[in-house]
Amino acid sequence: MTARDRPGRVLGGRHRIVPAAVAVLLLVLGACTLAVGLSRQEPAPPAAARPAPTSTATTAPVTSSPASPPAEGDTAPTLPRSAPTRLSVPAIGVNTSLERLGLDRHRALETPKDPAKAGWFTSGPTPGEQGPAVIAGHVTWNGARSVFFRLGSLRPGDRLSVRREDGSTARFSVTRTEQYPKDRFPSVEVYRNLDHAGLRLITCAGTYRDHRYSDNIVVYARLDQPGRS
């Protein structure tokens, strides 16, 4: 990471990803430290199903947009704060324990130490809390497939679950999967405040060149209504 990649001070927050923390996430994802290639590469990972919007990205701190009111009849369920311990995404064969991702000495988001595991960004909401919880993972590592290699193949309606420290399980449904060029990453859309419990699964994608990928894949998911199996 170069000097220009290093953001300023980051403030903590329990129920949202604060603006400076957004900048940290974008800078890290823009540099694509979620993929390492020292030898041959696997075939390109699955791309998102439809083209991403062309909104302009920013790595500067942003102001969170106000949450929209829930639709009529939507109770917008949430869960109390409890750290996640395990992620299961049956549609792509993912069943992984979760590392905890903080900030390194450059104030940049850490990446999972084990390429077979994903990691939760601890300064944001926990999965099930109101707001956009963030879980990131590698797509490839030293030429081999990693935990989120097939992330781009998820479709609306696919189910995933997050086991939590309090013994509960937060169950989510995918609402959409997007692929964004790094220089047009829509930070406000991805990390803005929500009126519901959301989850963002993020990895790298696109063309692999000079030890980095050109794009990011973001899977958007929403906490299911109570009683949905």
Specify the structural class. Answer: mainly beta
Q: Please tell me how large the radius of gyration is.
A: 16 Å
Q: Please state how the strands of the largest beta sheet are arranged side by side.
A: 1-2-3-4-9-10-8-7
> What ranges have pLDDT less than 50 throughout 5 or more consecutive residues?
1-16, 35-41, 51-73
- Overall form: globular
Mean pLDDT, to the nearest integer, reads 77
At the fold tier of CATH, the topology name is: Sortase, Chain: A
Helix content: under 10%
Number of helices: 2
**CATH-level-2 architecture:** Beta Barrel
Q: Sheet with the most strands?
A: 8 strands, mixed, barrel
Order of helices and strands: HEEEEEEEEHEE
Strand content: 25-35%
CATH level 1 class label: Mainly Beta
User: What do we call the CATH homologous superfamily?
Assistant: Sortase
Span of the ends, CA to CA: 43 Å
Plain-language structure description:
Mean pLDDT is 77; it is low at 1-16, 35-41 and 51-73. This protein has a single domain, classed as Sortase, Chain: A (Beta Barrel), CATH 2.40.260.10. Helix content is 8%, strand content 31%. The radius of gyration is 16 Å and the shape is globular. With 229 residues, it is mainly β.
